[in-house]
Design brief:
Layout lengths: L4 H67 L10 H11 L3 E7 L5 E6 L8 H6 L11 E3 L5 E5 L2 E8 L8 E8 L1 H36 L2 H5 L5 H53 L10 H11 L3 E8 L4 E6 L21 E8 L3 E10 L1 H45 L5 H4 L2 H31 L6 H6 L10 H30 L2 H20 L3 H29 L2 H33 L2 H20 L1 H7 L10 H6 L8 H11 L4 H30 L4 H27 L5 H16 L7 H27 L2 H6 L1 H30 L1 H22 L9
Antiparallel strand pairs: 1-2, 1-6, 3-4, 4-5, 5-6, 7-8, 7-10, 9-10
Helix pairs in contact: 1-2, 1-4, 1-6, 1-8, 1-15, 4-6, 6-8, 8-10, 8-15, 10-14, 10-15, 10-16, 12-13, 12-14, 12-25, 13-14, 13-16, 15-21, 20-21, 20-22, 20-23, 20-25, 20-26, 21-23, 22-23, 22-26, 25-26
């Protein structure tokens, strides 16, 4: 039965609404799923850390008793009663699976509980704290220096045994069954999924009601209408905000509970020891040496502010207090009116007499607040990374919605519903010049996200691999993989330019993505440093191919009038993927080690590769030469004739490189900045923060700061630079800011200082990066050589500096150390900027 025009219109409306709502729900589910995965990974790290801290407390307490005998001259090999002490430790924790004392050569002296499979390298990591244990072995270090191994359903913590000498006489290993941790993770996962389901369901219901019934169809399909785009974004952000608030609360509660449990663990051990002494008939007022016992408990955990021994009348008999309280405690009965989070009371009893006193423990509110802030920072990092990814998904959503409307606009009879035919056609034509960047940005984001996963730990992983025939200083060896990747990235970028000119953008992009995937898998399986260098070289070549190929796609599909904004749009996706990818990779490395992150990188690269294959027709239509697009009056002015090929251009290149303006720009700004950028962010920063006890996820957070500045401050700074006629001062400002931040590390080597250096380098990059290209294109010699060719030379110089960066900083690290090496790099950047000020002519348009 043939439908009438009115029925066909209603059917088309239902199809359009269903496709729009379906696209919104798909992006919503993906965004929420990403948040859930990141939150679960962060909570697992929190649970593992708190479990390890609890086991370490017991291990340190047991080790101190063994150390006392060693200091009295008893050799560890002839130490009797070890098994009895380990049995006592085993009885203190219900989930303790086993304990062992080992000699420095790994020989087991005593073992209780279930048989412990001591992993190779565990004892070496304990007795040689200067060694960096390979992360893929599962061996890591806590902030206190204790060795941690999470393997086969257990958590092992090892601490050194030390007598009279500074070197370790052996190691004490305690292992607990992590079933309690698994239960906590499962409870968090169930709660997280419940909140996630409720927020996702509420957002989906909101979209169904508003888009399906409340919003008029004309407002939904009106060209250029904002309602269909703002409503999904509002639903996404509200769902993410509610889930983020709940995640912060869960992290805070889990940390406070674990901290109180750790304090209670030690306090109950002291309570048990004191009860045994009191059962011998000793009066509580006549306990000798109790001050030292209380002081040892007070100093065992930073969260403990004071420990006091009270008699039955609530009078203070002895106390250990970092900052002695001005008010005497009111006694045991005051516990009901004191905040439970800050006070703990444990009664002391004697058989037949009942309670004769109590232990009062006060927790430090500043330490608790600092811990809560750290947990909030963990949850906030998850929310921030998720928000960046959600925004990229939202941009993809707008593209899907507009694609649906364009497809529907071609259906007969729809013109009357969406407005006049001329208005709709004009709106579609006005956005077609920007669609190439809107379509390319999700692929750039996905590609950079997967490529950036291992960036936060590349030098750390290189340090764990044995070198075969390479005989170089350690700093250079750690820098080799990154430098090789950047060097091959330069070669891949140059090759991509030729392939794009001859075969179009598909060959370099698809070939580059495939090469990155294969090389990432080879990185995961590399058994030597040489193999790892070769694998990262393949990743760099693939990165250069895909990176330049995607730029070629945007250039080919954009008219000169839209080319600048389209490239800015594309690079925003690049930095967004770089930011979120490095942070997520750091979190994954904390949980699973290094090698799985390389595998994840290879798998995720397949997603943009698959997406390009599915969208090849759409991208082929958008990437037609820009000459086919309607040109405006500004286009003719933007066309600059290129220099002829052959000998004339070869001579021009030499003159260009050694000119006072363009050559000074490369030598005084572009190359020094690239050296500082890669040398600091991807080589020195992981090593620097690891030496300060910062976790891989903390390193990822500092790296995120650079990306956030480039994404959100970069466009604002770019507008200011575009509005100024003189671009040279901004190039100088960027160099001075970036160099000053790194030079400051010579004075201060704290976490704040290195964070400030990253921020100033990013801020300087915003100023200089926005001004370099504009200043360069205004040079007379560049106009003679050709702006396109000069831009390629500029990009090649940038990659050359990125290749030199790790080697430069690595050599300084070997000679003078890491912090002075970074400071010298900053001074070098400042000096190079001053050389640029001196050599470059004041008039940017005067030939050099």
């Amino acid at each position: 039965m043939k439908l009438g025009p009115e029925q066909q219109g209603r059917a088309r409306r239902r199809v359009i609404i269903a496709e729009i709502i379906g696209a919104c729900l798909l992006i919503l589910v993906l965004a929420q799923a990403l948040t859930a995965v990141l939150s679960q990974a962060a909570f697992r790290r929190l649970a593992t850390t708190t479990t390890a801290e609890r086991v370490e407390l017991l291990a340190r307490d047991t080790a101190s008793k063994i150390d006392t005998g060693l200091r009295l001259g008893k050799p560890l090999a002839q130490y009797f009663g070890l098994e009895r002490q380990l049995q006592q430790s085993l009885a203190s924790l219900p989930d303790l699976a086993g304990a062992a004392v080992l000699m420095p050569d790994g020989v087991v002296l005593a073992m209780v509980g279930q048989g412990l499979a001591i992993a190779p390298g565990l004892v070496d990591a304990v007795v040689q704290p200067q060694l960096t244990p390979p992360r893929d072995s599962g061996i890591g270090r806590l902030a206190s220096g204790a060795v941690l191994l999470s393997d086969q359903g257990r958590v092992l913590v090892a601490v050194p045994l030390q007598g009279r000498t500074q070197s370790a006489d052996g190691a004490l290993v305690l292992a607990v069954d992590n079933s309690i941790q698994v239960q906590r993770e499962s409870a968090f996962l169930r709660h997280s999924l419940l909140v996630l389901g409720l927020t996702t369901g509420a957002a989906a219901l909101f979209l169904l009601i508003v888009l399906g019934w409340l919003l008029p169809f004309e407002a939904l399909t009106r060209p250029g209408g904002r309602a269909r785009l703002l409503l999904p974004l509002t639903a996404l952000m509200l769902a993410q905000a509610v889930y983020a608030v709940e995640t912060v609360s869960s992290f805070r509660t889990a940390w406070l509970d674990s901290t109180r449990a750790n304090v209670m663990l030690l306090a109950e051990r002291m309570q048990s020891d004191l009860n045994k002494v009191l059962d011998m008939g000793i009066d509580i007022r006549r306990l000798n040496g109790v001050d030292q016992v209380l002081a040892r408990l007070e100093q065992s955990l930073p969260a403990i502010s004071s420990v006091s021994l009270l008699d039955a009348a609530s009078q203070v008999l002895a106390t250990a207090d970092t900052v002695r309280s001005q008010d005497a405690p009111a006694g045991i009965g005051r516990a009901a009116v004191v905040p439970e989070e800050l006070h703990m009371f444990l009664p002391l009893t004697v058989a037949g007499r009942g309670q004769v006193g109590a232990l009062e423990i006060r927790l430090d509110p500043d330490v608790l607040a600092a811990g809560v802030r750290a947990r909030v920072l963990d949850a906030g990092t998850v929310a921030l990374v998720s928000a960046v990814a959600v925004f990229e998904m939202y941009l993809l959503l707008t593209l899907l919605i507009d694609s649906t409307l364009r497809k529907s606009a071609s259906m007969a009879g729809l013109g009357a519903e969406v407005g006049s035919r001329g208005e709709g056609a004009q709106a579609l034509r006005s956005t077609s010049a920007e669609d190439v960047a809107r379509l390319a940005r999700p692929f750039m984001f996905g590609f950079l996200f997967s490529w950036a996963l291992p960036l936060s730990f590349l030098p750390l992983y290189a340090a764990t691999l044995p070198a075969g025939w390479l005989s170089l200083p350690p700093g250079i060896l750690m820098a080799l993989p990154l430098s090789a990747e950047m060097l091959c990235g330069l070669g891949g970028a140059l090759l991509a330019g030729r392939l794009t000119d001859r075969s179009g953008w598909r060959v370099p992009v698809l070939g580059g993505l495939l090469l990155v995937a294969v090389s990432s898998l080879l990185s995961a399986g590399a058994a030597s440093l040489e193999a790892f260098v070769l694998a990262r070289s393949g990743v760099g070549a693939g990165y250069g191919l895909a990176w330049m190929g995607l730029q070629g796609l945007v250039v080919a599909g954009s008219s000169p009038r839209f080319r600048g904004r389209n490239m800015a749009w594309l690079f925003a996706g690049l930095f967004a993927g770089h930011l979120s990818g490095s942070a997520v990779g750091a979190m994954l490395a904390d949980q699973a080690g290094y090698r799985p992150v390389f595998v994840a990188s290879a798998v995720l690269v397949a997603l943009p590769l698959l997406g390009m294959l599915l969208a090849r027709r759409r991208m082929a239509a958008l990437s037609r030469p820009a000459a086919a697009l309607a040109l405006g009056p500004d286009d003719a002015a933007s066309k600059v004739p290129q220099a002829p090929r052959g000998a004339v251009q070869a001579v021009g290149l030499r003159n260009l490189l050694f000119s006072r303006d363009f050559g000074a720009l490369l030598a005084g700004s572009v190359v020094p900045f690239s050296i500082a950028q890669v040398g600091l962010l991807y080589f020195a920063l992981p090593l620097y923060l690891q030496a300060q006890g910062v976790s891989a996820s903390g390193t990822g957070r500092v790296l995120m700061l650079y990306g956030l500045c480039m994404i959100y401050l970069g466009p604002l700074v770019g507008r200011l630079v575009d509005g100024s006629r003189n671009k040279k001062p901004f190039i100088v400002l960027g160099g001075l800011l970036g160099g000053a931040g790194m030079a400051y590390l010579y004075i201060d080597s704290s976490l704040f200082a290195v964070t400030l250096a990253v921020f100033l380098l990013a801020l300087g990059s915003c100023w200089s990066g926005a001004a370099q290209t504009a200043w360069m294109l205004g040079l007379g010699r560049v106009q003679q050589y050709g702006p396109g060719g000069a831009t390629s030379v500029l990009r090649a110089a940038d990659k050359f500096g990125q290749m030199l960066g790790p080697l430069f900083v690595g050599a300084l690290f070997t000679v003078v150390g890491l912090a002075p090496g970074l400071a010298i790099t900053g001074v070098f950047y400042i000096v190079a900027t001053l050389v640029f000020v001196t050599l470059a002519p004041p008039d940017a348009k005067r030939p050099g």
